[in-house]
Design brief:
Order of helices and strands of chain A: HHH
Number of strands of chain B: 0
Radius of gyration of chain A: 17 Å
Helix content of chain B: 55-70%
Strand content of chain A: under 5%
Largest sheet of chain B: none
Largest interface: A-B, 45 and 49 residues
Radius of gyration of chain B: 23 Å
Largest sheet of chain A: none
Number of domains of chain A: 2
Number of helices of chain A: 3
Oligomer: heterodimer
Distance between the termini of chain A: 52 Å
CATH architecture of chain B: Up-down Bundle
Number of strands of chain A: 0
Structural class of chain A: mainly alpha
Number of domains of chain B: 1
Shape of chain B: elongated
Chain lengths: 86, 236
């Protein structure tokens, strides 16, 4: 089981690296970050044992962490992204 | 409890020796340890998150200059380092499994290989830093980034001051990450020592599990650092 996750992670890394050299214009970053997020999810769910964890509060802690990170990144980018004056 | 008047002495059969008295049962103690480590990792997410936020803002502002700067760091070394860390996460997970199944040799071997892979990562990082020093890409008095073309915009050259911002972020983010790796190596050295002394059993191997959580977190940070720093604008 762990070995399949490991293989998927290595494959994801390889794909990310190779796709970076193909011109996808604006979607290069989106593809790279999507693959990175999938890899992070694989590590978190299976290597860090979130999936099947006994502690019931664990999901709450993980989701609220992601929520606050989301606020930090999204609201900051929304601020700078909507500044139409140079 | 026992009738003994000596503090700490009580019947082994009453509970597992590793069970601390403020917990009702071993599973609760394990859950508490895991939850505690996860909450710490939440603070670490915000720690790195601030740097990622700064990076995203400046990348958006100076995309061309960042692309030029990113092209000058070695993506192959970065990809290799990513693979090294992924392999080390596998060995960490194997170490936990070995502790659960009382396979001492696999446990010790996995911990040793994890540490070796961590050192390989740091070695490759050192080589990258050395290259940056030699090319005068370290922010400061001797920084120079003249006449570097912006990828995809022939005839345009990167603004050295904006490129310097990229390199500041590069060194701080990878430097902080490397510091976490060094701390991780220290933790695993201690885990290795305890494993060698036979401290871990299928019923008690919590330090390996939570040490593993820390190591996986450091891996996840790198999984995001790699595409963001190394692969901004690589296509010809």
């Amino acid at each position: 089981m762990y070995f399949s996750v490991w293989a998927a992670l290595l494959l994801g890394t390889f794909i990310t690296y190779k796709v970076a050299y193909i011109d996808l214009d604006r979607f290069n970053a989106a593809v790279a970050l999507t693959i990175a997020t999938i890899k992070a999810l694989l590590v978190a769910l299976f290597f860090m044992h979130i999936k099947g964890a006994h502690e019931k509060l664990l999901k709450l802690v993980v989701i609220s962490t992601l929520f606050f990170l989301f606020i930090l990144l999204v609201l900051s980018m929304a601020d700078y992204g909507t500044r139409t004056w140079s | 409890m026992s009738d003994s008047t000596v503090v700490g002495l009580h019947d082994e059969e009453q509970h597992h020796p590793e069970l601390l008295h403020h917990f009702a049962e071993p599973q609760q103690q394990r859950d508490a340890a895991s939850l505690g480590m996860w909450i710490f990792l939440a603070t670490e997410v915000m720690f790195f998150g601030g740097l990622f936020c700064a990076y995203l803002i400046y990348r958006r502002m100076y995309f061309g200059d960042f692309g030029a700067a990113s092209k000058s760091i070695d993506a192959t070394l970065g990809a290799t380092n990513t693979a090294v860390l992924i392999c080390s996460s596998l060995t960490v997970v194997l170490a936990v499994w070995a502790a659960q199944t009382a396979l001492r040799k696999l446990l010790i071997g996995s911990l040793v290989i994890t540490m070796l892979l961590g050192m390989v990562f740091l070695g490759i990082k050192a080589k990258e830093y050395k290259d940056k020093f030699e090319e005068h890409h370290v922010p400061g008095a001797s920084f120079s980034f003249d006449h570097v073309p912006i990828p995809g915009h022939p005839g345009q050259y990167a603004n050295p001051r904006h490129a310097e911002i990229f390199f500041s972020l590069y060194f701080i983010m990878t430097g902080l990450h490397a510091l976490h790796m060094i701390i991780g190596l220290g933790l695993f050295a201690w885990l290795l020592f305890m494993a060698w002394k036979g401290r871990f059993t299928p019923e008690y191997h919590t330090p390996i599990e939570i040490g593993g959580l820390y190591w996986h977190f450091v891996d996840i940070v790198w999984i995001y650092l790699f595409p963001l720093l190394y692969l901004i604008d690589r296509h010809p």
